[in-house]
Amino acid sequence: MPVAPIARTLAHVIDRAYRAYRANQAYENAKTAAELAQLAVEINERRNQIKKMLRATIEAMTREIDVKSSTFAAVDRGGNSTVSRRGKENLNFKEYIERKVPFRPAISQVCTVALQLPIKVPRRISKKIAGDKIETTIEVALKQFTASLFFEAVDEALQWRSSLKAEPNYNGTSKKALLGIPATRPKRFGSDIQPFWPRPGGLLAPDLVVVEYRQEPFESENVFAAVEIKFPGDWVKQKQIDQYAELMEPRTGVNREKIGRGKVALLRVPEDCTGSETDNKQPPTSKGTKNRR
């Protein structure tokens, strides 16, 4: 075949391949846009759902705006350190598991719903089967995101004066809280659909912060408890606990390290939730139980 026809044929093939690629990309983008739109609808529905579910709690918080969180902590008996998910977790993190957390019933209710009915999103992945690369889609359950979204919905319903702040950002160096408008509202860097991510580097964000005085900003001095929430399959990490303990340390005074550590709590879902199946039970602790999503 002459060189010119070969070149024309090759150019034609390349052009068709490029057009097919662009058409496929447009189709994929359209699917992504549709998925995002559906996700936005689902998120709005879940916000309304949790506001109805926690209506009594929201109304109580509205009336009790001047009551300190420490008052409610007095009636909390802490988590279940008799339960271990793996290894010596119940021994290594005993003090954090048993920490008294105000509003544990409301927190438990939110986390239980997030565990049972999480928002799910499709995620495209590549995997090799018999040497061939296959593109497929899996469904991912966003339990932590669902819980954070619920806590944020409660905060919004209370005009950002809830005792419970979902994933508030703190500067890891200065330990200053990143405040929004009003100052009791956490500053966000994400989108309306995913407000908690992405997060700029150098920031720390505990899963949940319980403030002592909820009409004041959530600076570390006003934090009663920084709660690390762990759903099944998400293991406790000592580094994470240490980071939050250091974040909560006072800038001056004595026993700073002890005070900072005393503000950190660990809540495993459902083990440490009020009303969970493991509530008031003491299974063997010699072996950790493996959790699956």
From TrEMBL:
Residues 269-293 are annotated as: Disordered. It comes from the Bacteria. Residues 275-293 have a biased composition (Polar residues). This is VRR-NUC domain-containing protein. It comes from Pseudomonas veronii.
